[in-house]
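To: structure desk
From: M.T.
Subject: fold request, one chain
Message: Could you run this one when you get a chance? Sequence is below, nothing fancy, just the single chain.
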Amino acid sequence: MSGIPSEDLVDQVMAVAHLQPAASVVVIGHHTLPLLLALMRRGCTCVRSLRPGVASPDGEAADLAWIVDVANENELYEALQAARRRTGTSGRVIIADRLVLRPAGTLHPVR
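Reply: Done. Structure tokens follow.
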């Protein structure tokens, strides 16, 4: 995403969200594996990935919901709903930069 290595991006998001290293994080979107691995390496105790439009088997609360790569407004809407369900009133929601909404028909960037 945006050319920043996953490790650096995770450090930035954790600093902005004021998260403790043992935070519970849900990453919502496509192509989330590098971020999940980076979060685990940073010590996050509970990390999971959700894809927009796909049912989730659990509903565990999270300290942070990070929306990283959605294809259109419908996916963004679904991701925001899932994020609010996961974070409740005390968690945080962060939406990634320019890749949140790609123009229709645009291929996923090469990573």
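Reply (cont.): The mean pLDDT is 83. Let me know if you need anything else for the meeting.
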